[in-house]
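Hey L., structure's done. Input below.
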Amino acid sequence: MSTSLRVLLLMHEDLMPPETIEGLSDKEIAPFKTEYDVWAGLVDLGHEVMKLGVYDDLGVIRQAIESFKPHITFNLLEEFHGESVYRHAVVSYLELLKQPYTGCNARGLMLGHDKALSKQILAYHRISVPQFAVFDLNKKVRRPRKLEFPLVVKSVSEEGSVGISQKSIVYDDDHLVDRVEFIHRKVGTDAIAERYIDGREFYVGVMGNVRLQTLPIWELTFTNLPEGAEPIATSRVKWDYGYQKRVGVKTRQAGDLDESQAHRIIKLCKRVYKALGLTGYARMDLRLNGEGQVYLIEANPNPQLAYGEDFAESAHAIGIDYGELLTKILALGLSYRAAWALE
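Output:
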């Protein structure tokens, strides 16, 4: 894409990046690193970019579109009015305004965001997902008899490992109740408890609307995990740089997978993408147990796009540099056939 575009860069108002990060520490940059990297990357590509911070007012989006007249909106908004469950509504609003946008469509965002509903859909399509149960806010915790321990307990709707720690893995009913109540109290959402799959954790990036491209299979590994700790992506693993160094967190291209295993994983990711109606780009989180069974843990539309993070790094592994990755995401947004574009 050699043509210069007017790009409206949509983000949370608290994550508006400065014009330069010179002199800032990694810790200071971390909250808005994705927003800065995407903005800087688009500018380097020669696009005219308008940064727009949003919290709880859709009107500012309409005003920006009317005044700036963007060719496309690059959507980095992960919540609206402080609630991540509303982010699909912002995409619906963009469609109502007949505004092209990057990333996933509204229905795909809603389905991917709901861990329970997405698993029900995938199970219908005979895609392997862990057994699970949802525990609603303000209701007594009763474990279904068929749901066997160990279980991992997390929010049914929050992402980014919010509320997940080593204590999230439970082995009896008393600890299940404690952890569900923790999610209810601290995160403020319904909880989901799913069978813990002991094994290797993989991430696979997928891009496309109709024809799909998969990125190399990426793996989460630990070189210095404390004795007794499970290799899971807790909140500290995701966001605490000091802890990452202490336990030796590494994400890299998965090794020693035979060709048939790799083919099976890639085929599974494409099936998940299509079953949930995803578009744009997404990341699949999977687990491979000791018997060779692959389970889909979560489908994450619009995953983190920061330079050097898993999605961008896996693209780079097959020769797609950061600028080219952003260009591909823009092209997918411009080519997506929303309902209004079919008129």
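The mean pLDDT is 93. The first strand starts at residue 6 and ends at 12.

-- N.
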